[in-house]
Amino acid sequence: MVLPLLPIFLIGLFPMLLLSLLGPAGLVILGILVACAGLTDILDASGTFSEQIIVHGYARGSERAGQRTALHSEVRFASTMIACGGALAVAGIGGLFIS
User: Membrane-spanning residues where (predicted)?
Assistant: First the structure.
């Protein structure tokens, strides 16, 4: 039962060790990475939406509504990621000032 979980443990071991060694600075780095992933998701969603409009042209109302809904859904999730990344970075900076 433990053997199938070993690769997951070994993959997750290095980032956790790195975070524990870096302390609050690691939290800042993690926050920046999460925020960058959110920004990348927003850019990717906007690119996909633009590609759908350019390639398929002017779509029917229901298709456009579906595309807009997908875009807004991805942007909302990515905005949450950006906010969480910012919170991690602020917590890390606070930790640096406290320590």
Answer: 6-39, 77-98
Given a contact cutoff of 8 angstroms between Cβ atoms, the answer to whether 40 and 75 are in contact is: no
Q: How far is residue 55's CA from residue 23's CA, in Å, rounded to a whole number?
A: 48
Is the pTM higher than 0.90?
no
Per-block mean pLDDT, blocks of 10 residues, the chain (99 long):
81 81 88 94 91 78 83 94 95 91
Angle between helices 6-22 and 24-56 (to 10 degrees): 120
How far apart (Å, rounded) are the C-alpha atoms in residues 99 and 94?
A: 9
DSSP symbol at 23: T
Distance CA 79, CA 70 (A): 14
